[in-house]
Amino acid sequence: MAARKGRPPVGSSQTGVPTRAAPAARTTPARETPGFTRPALAPSMIAAVVLLACVAIVDSSGFVFARWGVTVLALIVLVFAVRGRTWWAAVLMTAVAVCWNPLITVPIPDEVWAALQLVAAALFVVVGLVVKVPREADAPRAS
Fold first, then answer.
1. Residue 129 vs residues 18, 87, 120, 123: alpha-carbon distances, Å
2. CA separation for the pair 45, 43 (Å, rounded)
3. DSSP 17-78
4. Is 57 in contact with 66 (CB distance < 8 Å)?
5. How far is the CA of 8 from the CAs of 3, 16, 44, 52, in angstroms?
6. Closest among 84, 79, 108 to 94, alpha carbons compared
7. Distance between CA atoms of 77 and 3, rounded to whole angstroms?
């Protein structure tokens, strides 16, 4: 194989070797995990999607299933709000759980329900973003 001008031969192990000394590798600080989590974010987003998707079926019999879903998700977010000591969010999630409760219904006209669906969806998004639960210490758990 003929040598190439000023370059190592093709297939040589010297291909790709820098000609200058490489600068010292910079050590980037490792990303530290934050001291909190946002466990209410996922159930809040699911509840917001359910609320927005079910605005059209407020007056139908299938709305009962949406009420069950919203009530259960509001109670889940309520637990995370209490764990994160976000008391205003806990109060609002309690109100949502009571209003959307399918067992003991609150008599609200359909037009008001449609507006409340949108307000509750926005409320779930805000609460999901705001509620922060502190991480537990990295202590071994008893099994």
1. 48, 15, 14, 10
2. 5
3. --SSPPPPPPPPPPPPPPSEE-TTHHHHHHHHHHHHHTSTTTTSTTHHHHHHHHHHHHHHHH
4. yes
5. 7, 10, 61, 65
6. 79
7. 70
Classify strands 133-134 and 36-37 as parallel, antiparallel or unpaired: antiparallel
**Tens digits of per-residue pLDDT, 96-116?**
999 999 998 888 888 888 899
List the one residue out of 62, 84, 83, 65 whose CA is nearest residue 73. Answer: 65
Q: Which amino acid is at 16?
A: G
pLDDT of res. 139: 45
What region, left, alpha or beta, does residue 16 occupy, with left being phi > 0 and alpha being psi -120 to 50 degrees? Answer: left
Q: What is the pLDDT of residue 89?
A: 95
Tokens for 26, please give them: 């910079």
Report how far apart, in Å, the C-alpha atoms of 46 and of each of 14, 38, 70, 118 are: 56, 14, 9, 14
Core vs surface per residue 107-119: b (16+ CB within 10 A) or e = eeeeeebeebbee
| Tokens representing residue 40 in the block | 């209410």
